[in-house]
Amino acid sequence: MTRQTADLTAGASSAESPKADTEVEDLEDMALSDDYAIDPEYVDMVIDAADRNDGPRLKELMEALHPADVADLMGFLTAEYREELLPHISPDDLAEILSELDTNLREEILENVPAASLAKALEELDSDDAADLVDDLDKGKRAEVLAAMDDVDRAAIESSLAYEDETAGRLMQREVLAAPQFWTVGDALDHIRADPDALPELFFDLYVVDPAYKPVGGLAISQLLRAPREVTLWSLMEPVTEIAVDADQEEVAYIFDKYHLISAPVVDPGGRLVGQITVDDIVGVIQEEAQEDILALAGVSDAGRDATVPGIVRARLPWLALNLVTATIAVTSIAMFQGEISKVVALAVLMPIVASLGGNAGNQTLAVAVRALAGKELTESNAVRTILREMWVGITHGVVLAVLLGGATFAVFHNPKLAAVVGLALMVNIFIAGVAGILAPLALEKMGRDPAVSSSIFVTFLTDFSGFLAVLILASLILR
Amino acid sequence: MTRQTADLTAGASSAESPKADTEVEDLEDMALSDDYAIDPEYVDMVIDAADRNDGPRLKELMEALHPADVADLMGFLTAEYREELLPHISPDDLAEILSELDTNLREEILENVPAASLAKALEELDSDDAADLVDDLDKGKRAEVLAAMDDVDRAAIESSLAYEDETAGRLMQREVLAAPQFWTVGDALDHIRADPDALPELFFDLYVVDPAYKPVGGLAISQLLRAPREVTLWSLMEPVTEIAVDADQEEVAYIFDKYHLISAPVVDPGGRLVGQITVDDIVGVIQEEAQEDILALAGVSDAGRDATVPGIVRARLPWLALNLVTATIAVTSIAMFQGEISKVVALAVLMPIVASLGGNAGNQTLAVAVRALAGKELTESNAVRTILREMWVGITHGVVLAVLLGGATFAVFHNPKLAAVVGLALMVNIFIAGVAGILAPLALEKMGRDPAVSSSIFVTFLTDFSGFLAVLILASLILR
Question: Which residues of chain B have a CB within 8 Å of the CB of A35?
Fold first, then answer.
C-alpha cells in the first residue's frame, strides 16, 4: 500500500493556515508508517529530544502530529517521558489529546495537569467528551476544575454526568440543530448563519420539532442545501430514529450500524429532544464492545497497553485461579478411575485428546453464538432451530473425528476395544460440546448477563469433565 | 430501557409522506422489540400470513419495515418462506434490502430475482453498494444484469469492480462534492443547488481540489453553511486525510476511527481525487473485522445464520481435524513416559490440570496481543517491552498458581515430591504460555499474516505439549 496522504492534521486547530511551512511538513511525513500507525523511528526521535532536554525540538515534534497521534505516541513512552512532554503540548491540543488517551494513561496525565489549565482545555470540547474527562478526575480535583470553568460549560458537563455511564445520555452532545416544522429551507439556512455559536461544531442533520420540542422528522444537511429556499421543512423531512436517553450504548451502536445513521436525536422519557449522538462517537463504542467480547471469551480483562505487571496480574489471575478450581474438579473424574488407568496406561495418553477436541468444538460453537447474539441474529425466533442444527453438526463432527481417532488408536495400540472406547467417547464429548456451546451463551443472555463472560470457562470445564469421564466409563464397560 | 421511537423507517424511500396512516404505524410499533431487534411475534405474523397465502397482508407487513429490518426478518425465515415473500417486496426497497442481507442469503435471493428487476434495483444504489451486489452474481447473470442497466451506471459498477475486494476502491463511491480552491462559499452553494443530480445522495464534506484534481483541503458542510458567502474556500479549508485507492479496508477503518472522520477523499496513485468513503460504510467494516478476529481465535469461520449443517461442518471440521493432529502430537510426550505413569497414576490426574492452565494463560495473552495489534497499540516501539512484561506476568502467575496447585496436591496425595513436580511443571508451563501467547501473534504479524488466525491452535498445542512433558520429565527426575 502506498500512502498518498500529504497531511494528516485534519480537524486540528482551525486557526492554522493550510500553508504549513516545509519543516513541519517534513516531520508530518515522517510521523506515520505505511500502515498509518506512528513510526517507531519517530518515537525514537521524541525519546532522543527528551533525553537531550531539547524543549523546542519536542514542541516541534508534537506540533507536527494530529492530537490522536500525540495520544498514540504517549502510549509508546514510559511515564517519565510522558511527564517531560506535557509542558510542550499546546493548550489548544491538550483537551483533544486527553480525550483520545487510553483510560489509565489519561488518569495519569490528568493528575499532572494543573486544574486551571484543565478547565480551559475542557471548554474546548463537546459536552460529551468533556464529561468523560471530568468523570476520570478524583473528587477533589473535579471540584477544583469545575469551579474554574465558566457557568454554561460547567452546567453542560454536570447534566451530562447525571446520566449513567455507557448510556445514550453520556454519549450525546447537548448542542443540536433543531427547527420548527413550519419553517422554510431559507429560514433554516438564515438561522444557521445568524447564530453559528449556538450550534454544535459539526452537524449532519437538522431535526424538525413540534411546539413541545418533540422530534417529528429530520433532514440531512446535504438535502437542505439542495432544496429551494421557499420549500417548508415539513414537506422535505423524513422520519428519524429516536434514541432514548437511557438506552445502553451497545443498543445505540446496533441502531447506528443497522440503519447506517450519521446522527440521531436523543429524547427524554417525555419524548422531548435533549441532544444528539453522532456516528464518530459510535465507531469507538463498536470497537470497544467487540474488543470486550474478544477478551471476555479468553477470560481476561484488558489492563491497557501501559499497564504494570501487578495491574496485568490483577486483570488475569482471578480467571486462571478459577480455571485451576474447575480443572481440579474436572480431574476428580480421573481420580475415581485410577485403577482403570493403571491397568491400561494408554488411557492416560488418549484422554487429553478427547478432552481437548471437545473444548475446541465447544469454543467454536460458543464464538459463533456470541457473535450472533451481539448482532441480534440469534433470538427466540431461531433459537430452537439453531440448537437443533448445532446438535446435527455435533453428530457429524463426532462421527468423522471418532473414525479418525479410533483408526489412529487401532493403528498404534492394535487394540480394537480401546479404539472403540476412544472413538465413542470422542463422539459423546463433541456432541456435549456443541450443545453446551450454544446453550451456555443463550442461557446467560436469557438471564440478562453478558454471554461472552464466563461461558468459555464453563464450556472448557464441561468438555474436560465429560471427556475424561466418557473415556473412563466406556473403558470400564468395554475393556474388561 | 424504554423505546421512544415512533418510526424507524428513516432513510426509506423519500417519496413517502411523513404522515403514515395509523394501520401502518401500528405495525411499525409491533415490528421491533425493546432491544431494537425484530420481534419474534412479528416473525410469527409473517409466517402466518405466508401460510395463509395472504399476499396483501404480507405486502403490508413488509412495508411497515425499514429495508434493514426486512433483511433481518429474512434471516429468521427458512428458504421457502423467503421465496414466498419476494414478490411482495416493493421494487424500490429491493436494492436496499439486498445490500443489507448476509452474503449467503443474498446469493440465494439474487438467484430468484429476474435480471431485469435486478438491473432496475441496482440503479437505485450508490456505486459501491451496487458493485458489491453484482460481485455476488454468477457470471451468466452478471452479464445479463449489466446489459440491462443504463450505460452510466454500468460504467460506474464496472470501474468499481476493477478494484480488489476489501480495498478503499471497493468501499468508495465515485460521486463526490469537489470545488476549486479559488471558489467562494457562495459559488459552492450555488453549484450544489444548480446540479444536485451530479452529487452523491448524501455528502458531509466538500473537497477542495487543485487544477490537476488533487485534493488540497476540505471543509465540513456545516462549516460551509455557517460561513459568509464571499469567503473563499481556500481561506476556510482544513487539511484532509487522503486515502489511497488500494488501501486495505482494515487500514481505512483504522484511520476513520483514529481521526473521527465522517468522510474522506480517495485518491489514485497519481494523487487525483477519484471518490469518497463515508463513515456509514466503515461501521460495517469495523464490525466485520472484529468478528473475524473473534472467530479466528476460536478456530472457526462463520458460515452465517442461515447456513446448512454441511456448510457449518465445512467451516469448522478442518480446524478440529488439525487440532486432532496437534493433540495427537502433544500426547506422544505422554506415550514416551508410560512407565512413569504406571508407577504414579496420580500423574495422569495432574497432567491435564497443568496443560489446561497453560492453555488458558496462553490464550489470555494471545487475546490481548491480537487486540493490541489490531489497534496498532503494539508495534516495534514497544514489542520488546511488552514481551519482557509478559515474561514477568508469567513468572508471577506461575509462582502463585504453583503454590496453590502444589499445596492442593500435597493435601490430597500427602507426597511432597509429587507436589514439587506439579508445582514446578505448572510454573514452567505458565511461563512458556505467556511467551508463546505474545511471540506467536507478533511473529505472524511480522510475516504479514493475520495474527488471529492459527496462533490459538499453536499456543494450545505448545502448552499441552510442554505441560505434559514438564510434568513427566520432572517426575522422572524427582520421583525416583
Answer: 251, 254, 376
Q: Find the CB nearest B40 among A2, A5, A379.
A: A379
Q: Quote the ipTM score.
A: 0.84
- Do residues A242 and A255 make contact, with C-beta atoms less than 8 angstroms apart? no
Yes or no, beta carbons of A226 and B9 under 8 Å apart: no
Question: How many CB atoms sit inside 10 A of residue A220's CB?
Answer: 21
A-B CB pairs within 8 A amount to 459
Is the domain of A146 the same as that of A216?
no
Each residue's pLDDT tens digit, B25-61: 588 788 888 778 889 999 999 999 999 999 899 998 9
Do A210 and A91 sit in the same domain of this protein? no
Chain A hits for B319, CB-CB cut-off 8 Å, are 360, 364
Name the band, by pLDDT with cuts 50, 70 and 90, for residue A414: very high
Nearest CA in chain A to B308: A389
Report yes or no: A426 and A471 within 8 Å, Cβ to Cβ: no
Q: Which of A241, A244, A327 sits opposite B8 (nearest CB)?
A: A241
Collect all residues of chain A within an 8 Å Cβ-Cβ radius of residue B203: 222
Mark yes or no for CB contact B327/A217 under 8 Å.
no
Residue A438 has a pLDDT of 95
Confidence of residue A22 (pLDDT cuts 50, 70, 90): low
Residue A354 contacts by C-beta under 8 Å, 6 or more apart in sequence? A405, A422, A425, A426, A429, A467, A468, A470, A471
Smallest CA–CA distance from A253 into chain B, residue: B283
Contact B376 A35 (CB under 8 A): yes
**A445 and A313 assigned to the same domain:** yes
Cβ of B294 within 8 Å of Cβ of A254? The answer is no
Of B196, B218, B246, the CB nearest to A10: B218
A47 in a structural domain:
yes
Greatest Cα-to-Cα distance within chain B, rounded to the nearest angstrom: 94
HSE-CB for A469 with a 13 A CA cutoff: 13
Same domain, A284 and A325: no
- Do B253 and B317 belong together in one domain? no
**First CA to last CA across chain B, in angstroms?**
65
Bin B300: left if φ > 0, else alpha if -120 < ψ < 50, else beta. Answer: beta
| B156 in the same domain as B29 | yes
Domain span at residue A119 reads 22-171
Interchain CB distance below 8 Å, B364 and A316: yes
> Is residue B17 assigned to a domain?
no
Three-state SS sequence of A54-80:
CHHHHHHHHHCCCHHHHHHHHHCCCHH
Q: What is the CATH number of the domain that holds A86?
A: 1.25.60.10
Other C-beta atoms lying within 10 Å of the C-beta of residue A150: 9
Residue B303 placed within a domain: no
Alpha-carbon distance of B173 to B151, in angstroms, equals 17
Cα gap B167→A63, rounded to integer Å: 31
Return the residue in B1, B2, B5, B204 with the most chain A beta carbons within 10 A, the one to mutate for interface testing: B5
Residue A90 CA to residue B412 CA, distance in Å, equals 64
Using DSSP's 3-state secondary structure scheme, residue B80 falls into: helix
d(CA A303, CA A287) in angstroms, rounded, equals 16
Q: Report pTM.
A: 0.84
Quick one: B129 and B270 in the same domain? no
Q: What is the DSSP letter of A38?
A: B
Q: Is B100 exposed, middle or buried (0-12, 13-18, 19+ CB in 10 A)?
A: buried
Return the CATH number at B234: 3.10.580.10
The minimal CB distance from B320 to the residues A201, A349, A361 is found for: A361
Same-domain pairing of B460 and B371: yes
Alpha-carbon distance B22 to nearest alpha carbon in chain A (angstroms): 15
Per the structure block, which three cell numbers stand in for B397?
Answer: 502467575
